[in-house]
Task: inverse folding
């Protein structure tokens, strides 16, 4: 007589364990498959996770270090003041340049009539971080805006940097001063109503960046090596000899800093120099990434250093962000 | 085992893990930040309470799978799906078979079991993912993640008594009371 098969808990357990083993093998060879399954789970979790993230971000902001406030040490304040003075100088030059261009544009308009204003090339899509990475080994989170809202894979994610600490007593309650736009990370996966962002501190996040050296003491500038018209020479750092240095920034192994590897030592980069984005067709240029915190000689490559960069964004209390969407691309233009 | 109530509890545990554990995250270590693994504490609690070992392993598998769905990155970038549930099952089996030799009501036992479970699960998961992504992983990153796993395990062990105290109040919804036997 044939024995009837009965499904027991042991059968279910063994079946599910085998399914897990197959999933592990399949997603090793096809990582996109894992992303699709996780995207579906994100859709289920995200609506209820939003409230939890609100509580976490609000509490973190209250008990953690205030957003974008520098250390209250004399040296740090001095460095910051010097940086701001250099910025003022730079902006004054830009303003003079813009005035000159405006004058030329008016002369052009007078001759040939008005032309339509150039379209803004990037659009900012407001989003919220509704969930963070469950385990602390990677740095990422889920957004409540997905492919349907315009969040495409590779798109940069930014946040407004507010001066909420220093001029608090000068401003009415709940007011802030927008200091600039800070890069937070890039979209690593996107589905209809949500997207996953890999933060700048995650090793999988790579950003085309530039290091901009800050002229702190104009009377005693540092020596840098430049190449002009095919000839290399050592000069004093000045606005005329301060070309930005193109680098690639990626997340560090410590999950809290950004790392830039294989930078020539003769660029003479110092802690306090600023790291910003470089235009790559998807990412706008000059979004602040952070400030160089440490310059370490590369033990494996003589004449090179690697840089540890402190991210400008307060990533632990991340909540309101903007997904950057190019309005046009080179192909569609 | 009451599976509907357990599924709701597992959902809440994963929600808390992906949101409010960021609030109690401890940073400042050279290897990165650490936070407790709340689904692991629930898996240990269930493994200590249920009468059937298969129930303990099934519950751990469900928790591991739910947690695995929310893991964005890890060793070598995009991590393979399915490894975490398997390590959870292994951990639950160890806890279930070891519990007979221990006094499960003692806080020290709960702390040690949670620490051991989390260490086994996280060190196993990090090692397996590193092996699967051997091409992109470096020894320095692997060492840092193993240290992070030890930190996560210690933190999970530390919060275990609090979780047990909270779960005792809703224990009867998850694990039915043992029927009275003759002589008991």
Result:
């Amino acid at each position: 007589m044939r024995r009837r098969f009965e499904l027991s808990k042991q059968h279910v357990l063994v079946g599910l364990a085998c399914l897990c083993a197959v999933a592990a093998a399949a997603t090793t060879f096809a990582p996109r498959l894992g992303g699709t399954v996780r995207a579906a789970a994100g859709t289920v979790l995200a609506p209820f996770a939003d409230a939890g993230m609100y509580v976490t971000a609000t509490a973190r902001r209250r008990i953690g270090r205030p957003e974008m406030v520098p250390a209250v040490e004399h040296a740090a304040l001095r460095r910051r003041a010097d940086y701001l003075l250099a910025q003022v100088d730079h902006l004054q030059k830009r303003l003079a340049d813009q005035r000159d261009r405006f004058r030329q544009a008016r002369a052009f308009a007078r001759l040939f009539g008005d032309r339509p204003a150039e379209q803004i090339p990037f659009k900012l899509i407001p989003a919220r971080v509704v969930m963070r990475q469950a385990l602390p080994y990677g740095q990422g989170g889920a957004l409540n805006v997905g492919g349907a809202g315009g969040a495409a894979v590779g798109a940069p994610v930014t946040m407004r940097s507010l001066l909420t600490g220093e001029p608090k007593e000068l401003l009415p309650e709940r007011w802030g001063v927008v200091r600039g736009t800070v890069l937070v990370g890039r979209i690593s996966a996107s589905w209809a109503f949500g997207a996953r962002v890999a933060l700048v501190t995650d090793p999988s996040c790579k950003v085309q960046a530039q290091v901009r050296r800050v002229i702190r003491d104009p009377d005693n500038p540092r020596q840098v090596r430049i190449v002009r018209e095919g000839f290399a020479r050592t000069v004093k750092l000045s606005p005329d000899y301060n070309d930005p240095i193109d680098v690639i920034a990626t997340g560090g192994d410590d999950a809290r800093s950004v790392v830039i590897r294989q930078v020539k030592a003769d660029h003479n980069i110092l802690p306090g120099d600023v790291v910003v984005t470089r235009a790559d067709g998807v990412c706008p240029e000059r979004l602040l990434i952070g400030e160089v915190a440490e310059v370490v000689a590369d033990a494996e490559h003589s004449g090179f250093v690697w840089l540890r960069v402190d991210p400008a964004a307060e990533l632990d209390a991340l909540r309101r962000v903007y997904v950057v969407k190019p309005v046009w691309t080179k192909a569609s233009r | 085992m009451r599976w509907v109530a357990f599924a709701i509890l597992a959902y809440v545990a994963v929600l808390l893990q992906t949101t409010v554990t960021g609030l109690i995250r401890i940073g400042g270590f050279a290897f990165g930040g650490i936070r407790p693994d709340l689904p692991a504490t629930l898996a240990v609690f269930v493994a200590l309470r249920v009468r059937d070992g298969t129930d303990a392993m099934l519950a751990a598998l469900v928790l591991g799978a739910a947690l695995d769905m929310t893991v964005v990155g890890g060793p070598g970038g995009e991590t393979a799906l399915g490894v975490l549930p398997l390590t959870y099952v292994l951990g639950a089996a160890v806890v279930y078979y070891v519990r007979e030799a221990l006094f499960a009501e003692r806080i020290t036992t709960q702390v040690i079991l949670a620490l051991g479970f989390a260490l086994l699960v996280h060190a196993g998961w990090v090692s397996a993912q590193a092996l699967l992504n051997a091409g992109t992983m470096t020894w320095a990153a692997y060492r840092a993640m193993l240290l992070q796993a030890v930190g996560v395990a210690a933190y999970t062990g530390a919060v275990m008594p609090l979780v047990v105290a909270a779960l005792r109040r809703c224990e009867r919804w998850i694990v039915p009371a043992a029927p009275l036997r003759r002589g008991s």
